[in-house]
Amino acid sequence: MFSHIKELQFEAKPDRPDPLFAKKLQELIGGQFGEMSVAMQYLFQGWSVRGNQKYKDLLLDIGTEEIGHIEMLATMVSRLLDGAPVSAQEEAAKDPIIAAAMGGMNPQHAIVSGLGARPADSVGNPWMGSYIISSGNLLADFRSNLNAESQGRLQAVRLYEMSEDRGVKDLLSVLIARDSYHQNQWAAAIAELEEAEGFLVPSTFPREKERLDVAYTLYNFSEGEEAAAGRWAQGPSIDGHAEFNYESTPKAEGAKPVLKPAPPNLHNTLPMDNIPK
Amino acid sequence: MFSHIKELQFEAKPDRPDPLFAKKLQELIGGQFGEMSVAMQYLFQGWSVRGNQKYKDLLLDIGTEEIGHIEMLATMVSRLLDGAPVSAQEEAAKDPIIAAAMGGMNPQHAIVSGLGARPADSVGNPWMGSYIISSGNLLADFRSNLNAESQGRLQAVRLYEMSEDRGVKDLLSVLIARDSYHQNQWAAAIAELEEAEGFLVPSTFPREKERLDVAYTLYNFSEGEEAAAGRWAQGPSIDGHAEFNYESTPKAEGAKPVLKPAPPNLHNTLPMDNIPK
Amino acid sequence: MFSHIKELQFEAKPDRPDPLFAKKLQELIGGQFGEMSVAMQYLFQGWSVRGNQKYKDLLLDIGTEEIGHIEMLATMVSRLLDGAPVSAQEEAAKDPIIAAAMGGMNPQHAIVSGLGARPADSVGNPWMGSYIISSGNLLADFRSNLNAESQGRLQAVRLYEMSEDRGVKDLLSVLIARDSYHQNQWAAAIAELEEAEGFLVPSTFPREKERLDVAYTLYNFSEGEEAAAGRWAQGPSIDGHAEFNYESTPKAEGAKPVLKPAPPNLHNTLPMDNIPK
Amino acid sequence: MFSHIKELQFEAKPDRPDPLFAKKLQELIGGQFGEMSVAMQYLFQGWSVRGNQKYKDLLLDIGTEEIGHIEMLATMVSRLLDGAPVSAQEEAAKDPIIAAAMGGMNPQHAIVSGLGARPADSVGNPWMGSYIISSGNLLADFRSNLNAESQGRLQAVRLYEMSEDRGVKDLLSVLIARDSYHQNQWAAAIAELEEAEGFLVPSTFPREKERLDVAYTLYNFSEGEEAAAGRWAQGPSIDGHAEFNYESTPKAEGAKPVLKPAPPNLHNTLPMDNIPK
Amino acid sequence: MFSHIKELQFEAKPDRPDPLFAKKLQELIGGQFGEMSVAMQYLFQGWSVRGNQKYKDLLLDIGTEEIGHIEMLATMVSRLLDGAPVSAQEEAAKDPIIAAAMGGMNPQHAIVSGLGARPADSVGNPWMGSYIISSGNLLADFRSNLNAESQGRLQAVRLYEMSEDRGVKDLLSVLIARDSYHQNQWAAAIAELEEAEGFLVPSTFPREKERLDVAYTLYNFSEGEEAAAGRWAQGPSIDGHAEFNYESTPKAEGAKPVLKPAPPNLHNTLPMDNIPK
Amino acid sequence: MFSHIKELQFEAKPDRPDPLFAKKLQELIGGQFGEMSVAMQYLFQGWSVRGNQKYKDLLLDIGTEEIGHIEMLATMVSRLLDGAPVSAQEEAAKDPIIAAAMGGMNPQHAIVSGLGARPADSVGNPWMGSYIISSGNLLADFRSNLNAESQGRLQAVRLYEMSEDRGVKDLLSVLIARDSYHQNQWAAAIAELEEAEGFLVPSTFPREKERLDVAYTLYNFSEGEEAAAGRWAQGPSIDGHAEFNYESTPKAEGAKPVLKPAPPNLHNTLPMDNIPK
To answer: pTM of the prediction?
Structure first.
C-alpha cells in the first residue's frame, strides 16, 4: 500500500523554458534506463522476493523512491515546455532559431500531451515492460540493478553537460548523486550475496552438469590476438575454481546440420537435391 | 567482415521431437537475454569502441561466438519440431496428450515458419533492438554484459531442469558452461576497469558537481526497517570515498509543484480554482 | 514523494495454486486496461495538471491507490504459481491434466520470472506507455478514465466468473467494487466539468471555425438503415446547440485526388499515363 | 463487403507544401487516437456485435466513414510533402530556415515512403492494434468511442491552431466538425444504454458479489484534502444506489505478504533470513 | 470515400465452434501477412500513387476487397468462439480435452474481446503499421505485394490442412483462390513494369554511380561451394547487362576501423591503449 | 560457426562529420529493410532449410556478407557523429545552423549510445524480429528477399542523393551495387524454382481444393474502370492455367452475418433488438 505527499523530494524548476531540452530529458523518464524502468524493476523484484525480507524491504524502499523521481522529472518537463512555440503566429515569424526549436521539439508534447511529460523516451518510443527484469534470483537481479544505475548515471551526466540552466543542473545533480548511492548500494548487496553463495549465477546448479572443459576458455573468433593479453585469458578465474585459458583456433565439434524434410501438409519446399535443374 | 563454416561448434540434436520444448527454447534465441541479444549487444559495443583495441577485439570475439549460438539453437528448434502435430488428422484422434501438445505449441512454428525457429521469445514477442545496450562507456556496458550472462545462464539452467532429453541437455550444458566463462570474463574485465578508473560510472564526472550530501544515504521510503541492517546503510562505501548512512524519515526539500496555465491555443482545461462549482 | 507500507490494503491469497489462472490474471496487471495502465495514467495526468488543485489531488489519490492494486495482484500471481509444474520429472508422468497445465501456462512465469508476476498481459505482450493518455484537457482525460474503469471492471468480472477459488474471488470482489466506485467518481467529475464548460471537448474552440453544416449529421455509409432510427439521428443534439439529422446518400464534395510527380532524386515510379504499354 | 469511389468526401489540398506540418499531421493518421484507430475500432466492434443490429449498423456506418478520413489525410500529407528539401543540393545552400526544415522533417517521409503518408504517428511510432478496444460490451465500448472522439477533436484543434494554411484549415474544420458529431452521437447512444441497463459496466454482474462496503469510498492516499470537497466524496452516487463517502486515513486490511520459497529446480535465491551474514 | 454493404462477399460459417482454431486463424487477420496488412498496404500504396491512374485504381480495388476479407475472418472467429469454455463450472469438470482447450485458447478472446476477433496474430502480438510498405516506387512495391500474397496463401493453405471443418475449409478455399489470383495479378503488373523500365529497382539511378565491379559477383562467405553451382554465379545476369561471376575468397578492401575518442563531455571510456594495466 | 576479420570489406570513412546524416543513415542499419533485417532474414532462412543444400549455402553466404554490411554502416555512423554538437557551450552560440543540427540530430546518439550506431531506424524505432520472414517455402521466401533488396536499394539510392560527401557516396555506391547483385541473384533463384515447381506459392496444394471459379478474376471494388485495361484482367494468366477475367459489379454471395448472443458469464451486452427503447 502506497501513499503520496504533495511536496517534491527535491526542487524541479528550470530557470527558463527549453522545449528541446524537455524532449531530451524524456530519456530519463521513459527510456530503457529511465526512472519508470528502475521504479517498476525494483517494485516487481520486491513483490516477487520469496523469503529474504531484508532484500525485499530494500527493493521496496528504492522502488518507492524512484516513483518520486519520475514525479520530479515530469514536473521539470512541464515547466521546460512552458512557452513552447506551438502557434501558427510564431511560425510565421520565420526566426531561424525559433524554426529550429519548432523543428526539433517533440510534436507530441504539444499535440498529444498539452505540454505535459510523456511515458516515452527522447525519440518518442513508449516505455515498455520488456525493459525490466525480475528473475527471482537476487544476485542476477542486483547485477541488473547495478547496470541500470550505471547507465542511468551516465545518461544523467551527459544531459547535465548539455544544459546551462541552473535549475535543470540542480535537479540532475541530485539524480546523479542518488545514482552514485545506488551503484554503491547494489555493489554492497552483490558483494554480500557473492560471499554467501559464490560468484556464479545461479550458484545452486551442480557444476558437474555443465561442460567444464569449455567453461574457462576464451575462444578467438575474431582475427587479431589483442584480447589474448587480457586478464580473462590467463591466471585464476574470478570464481576461484580454475585457470582461464585461450584457444586461438576454435574447432567445430558438431556436424554440418542436415534437417529432415517437413511433413507434406506444411507445404514447405521439398528437397530437390537430386532433382535435375 | 565475417565468414561462416558449415559445422556447428557443438552438436544440436535432440533424442526426440518435442514441440512444447521448442516453444520454451525460443526464450534463449529471441528473448530479452537470448543469444540474439548478446550477439548484437557485443557486436554493437565492439563496433563503437573508440581506442581500446583490446576490448574491441574481446567484444568482437564473443559477439561472433554468439551468432554461432543462435545457429545451434535454431537447429535444435527445427529438430524439436520434427513431427509436430500439425494436421487435422491427428487432431481428430482426440488423444488428450496430443491435444495438450497442440494447444500448447506455438502456432507460428507451424503456420508462419514451417517448423523453423522464430526471432522471438517463448511467448512469441519478436526480438527488439531495445533489448540491447551500447553506451560508449565500457565499464557501464561490461556491467550490462555481466548481467546478461547471469540472466542467460539462469534461464538456460531452468530449461535444463525442464527437459529429460539427453541431446537437449548436452547442448544446454555447453551453453551453461559458456555463460559461466562469460560471467567470469566480464567480471575480470570489470575488475580491470574499476582498478584503472574507479568504481563509479562514469568516473570522469567531477564529484563536486553532484549533491554529495545525498550520495551515500539509504532513504527509508517503505515502512519497516529491515533494510537498515544491511551493509549498504553503514560502514565505508564501496567507492571508498565516504560512509554509508541511513535516513529513516526522509524529508521533502522541494515545494508543492504548481504549474502555470497552458497557452490558450492548446485548449487544455483552464484553471478553475476560483470558479464556483 | 511516495511512501510504502508493508501490509497489503486487501488480502491476496488463493486457496490453491493455479498456474493457468496466474497467466489469465496478468491481464489485470499489464494489459491495456490493467492496473499498471490506470496507475500510470492517473499519475501522469496528475503531474501535468496546470491549476485545478482539486483535480490534481484526486488524480494523485487514485493513481497512488492503483500502485497498491498492482502489488496485490503481483502477490496473488506469485502465490498462484506456487507448485507450478516446472520440472522434467512431472512432465514424465504424462498425466493429461498436468500436460494441459504445462502446455497452457505462461512459460516466462518459469523461465524468466521464477514464479513472479510479469509486467505483461495474459498473452505475454509487455505493458506499453502507449496504453495511457494524459492530454492536459481534463474533460477528455476523465472520459478516458471512465472508459478504463469500465473495461477494467468488465475484465475483472469475467475473470471472477472463470475462477472457483474463494481467495481469488475475494480479491476480485474488492477490485470490482473499486472499479464501481471509480466509474461513479469519474462520472461525477465529468458531470461537474460538462456543467462548467459544456459538453464538447475542447470547449474553448470557437464553433464557427468548424464546418457546422456537417457537425450534426449521421452519414449512412453502410447499406441498411437501422441506425437511422436511433436517438443520434433526430431530435436535439446532446450539446443542446442543434438538431441531429440523417443523410442516407452522402455525396462526395471533394475531387478525385491527382498527385504531382515526385522529384527525380527520390526515384519514385515516374508517371507513365501517356506511355504506350 | 466494401466499395470505394474515387472522389474524396471533402477536399484535401494545402495552399503550399510544408513538410514539418506533414510530420505533425501524421498524428491524426497513425497516432493513438488517429483515424486508423477509430476506423479499426468501430469496424472490429461492429463485426463483433451479437444481436443489436441497430448498433451494429451504426458502428459500420461510422467505421466506414473513418476509412475515408484516413484517405483525405493521406492525400493531404502527400501534398504537404511536395517540394520537401530532399536533395544534397539544397542542403548545400545552408539557408537556416531550410536547414531547420530538413532537420525537423520526418526522414522516413523521404527515405521510406517517397513523399507518401506513413501508418505512424507524429514521432514515427507505427500504428498498433493495441490502440483499439472491442470488448463485446457496448456501453463500455461506446465510452471508449466517446473518449477517442474527444482526444481526436482536441488534437485536430491543436493542429488547426498550429497552421495558417487555408487548405489545411479547411480540411481540419471538417474533421473537427465530424468529431463534434461523433461526440454527440456516442453520448446519445451511451444515454440510451445507461437508461436501458443502468450506469455501471457491466450491468449484469450481481452487485452482492462485490465488496459493496468499499464501492462508494474515496480513499485519501495523497496528503492534502482538496479532493474531499468534490462531488465524488459526498451525496448520492451517480448510479443512484448509495451515498459517496470519504476515508481520510485508509487502513490496510491485508497482511504483510510473505511468499513461500520457489522449488529448487528454478534456482531462485534461497531464503537466507536465518543465515548469518 | 468508402461504403459498405451488410452481406459478406462469401459465407463465413463453421460447422462447429473451435476456440483453438479461432486462435490460429488470427494469423490471417492480424499477422505480418494477414488481411489487415494487405488491406492497409494496398490502400496506402494507392493513396500515394503520383500519376499512373491505372495502378492507383488497381491498388484501391484490391485494398478495398481486402477490408472485406478481414470482415469475413472476423465473423468466422466470432463463430468459432461460440461455446468456448469460459466459466469456472466447466473447468471443474476436469475433462482433459476441455482442459487442453482451455489451456490452449487465447485468453484475450474471453477476457478482452468477449468472443470477438482481435487485431492481433495467432500468438497475440498486435498488428503493427511497420508490417506494411509503401515506397512510392511501384515496381518495388509490387514485388512486396507478390511476396505478401505468396506468404499469405502459404499460411492459408497450412490452416486449411489443420482443419476438418467444412465451413472453415470453404472460406479458406476462397481466400486461397483470391491469393492465387493476386499472385498472378501482381506478377502481371511486375512484368509490365519490368518491360517498361528494366529489371532493377530503382531503374532511374545511373548505373555508373554504383561500383559496377562488385555488382555481379557472388561472394563465398560461407565454407562450402554448393552455391557456386547456381545460375546466380555464372551466365548472363537477369538484368541482361553483364555476366555473373563467383569469388571464392573475398578480400577485404577496407582498413581496420580505428575510431577517434569521443569528446570528454560524453564521458565515454577514454582510450587506455597506452595506459599500463 | 562464424569468424571475423578486423578489416572492413569496403572502406567506411566520410569526408566530414554530419550528425543529421548519421540519423538518416540509421534507416539502412535498423530499418524495416536495413542490413539487420537482411542479415537475420537470410540466416534464419538458411538455418531452417530442410534438404536443398545449394540454397542453404547461398543463404548463409549472403546472410554472412550482410553482417559485414551492418559493421560498415555502424562504423560510418560513428564517424559521422564525430564532433556532433553535444555540449551546452555550443548551444549558447545560437548559430542557427548549429541550432538546426542540434534540433535535428537523434538525441539518443548522444545520450544513449555515446556517438555510436543504434539498432534502430531513422526515427528511432528499434529493429524488430517481426521485420523478417522465414517460412520454410523457398519460393515464397526468395520473393521476400527480392523485395527486401528492391526496397533496400531504393532507400540507399535516396540517401546517396541526399549527401554530397564523397566518403559516404563511396560506401553507398558499394551497397547499391551489392543490392543490384542481390536483386539479380534472387531473381535467378526464383526463376529456377518457378521452372521446377510452377509459379504459384505453394505449388504443392491441389488446385481443385481452392475455389477455381474465383481464382482468375479482378473484382472492381473501386469506382472507375482504369484497372480493367490491365494485363491482369484479360489474356492468359501468368501461371498458364486459365484466362484472366474482370467482374465490374461483384455480387455478395454470403448472407448478412448475425451472431449468436455470448454466454451470460462474459457480460457482453445482451441482445436488445426486441426491447422497446
So the answer is: 0.96
